[in-house]
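Lab manual, section 2.4: Encoding a predicted structure.

Procedure: take the sequence of the chain (191 residues), apply the prediction step described in section 2.3, and record the output as structure tokens. A sample record is shown.
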Amino acid sequence: MRKKSLFLVVCALSTLLAIEVPSKEDQIAASILAAPKERRAGATVLGYNSDGKVVTLREGNNDLICLADDPAVKGFSVACYHKDLEPFMARGRELNASSKGKARHEQRWKEVDEGKVKMPREPRMLYVLDGKGFDSAKGEVIDSYLRWVVYTPYATPESTGLSTTSGTAPWLMYPGTAGAHIMISPPRTTK
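Recorded output:
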């Protein structure tokens, strides 16, 4: 009797802890909104299966990869980036399980420096679209905010002329590292 009760408790908890994964169609529709309109139809789309694993939802025919919102993470965020950034992005997703924040970044940069993770030396684009969620009936992100990131590995203020002070003007984040990038975050509009 005791084993049966424990089994029922485990089953109930696993049901409560299960993540709700949007349909493949909704994941694709939401994620491609981060890309420029003319690039959306040809983008490869990565999303999540019922186990929370990243899977390819749609093969594309251009140089963009879009990543659906992670249903296991609070908030809503989708991104599209140049396919040459995928090894760097994939490694970041792998490291999320064991490290966060600066430690995660530093591990990836070290692996790029050592040649273990491929990273292009030329600038590559990343588009990030955040919001409160995705309204599938309207096909839009609720309270959306789009920002742009230009990866420029090893760039410095001296090589770019950019400030390292965050704000609404373009600025350089993580200068001198493999993960150096230009942040372009326009002011948020209020409704």
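Check your result against the sample. The CA atoms of residues 95 and 104 lie 6 Å apart.
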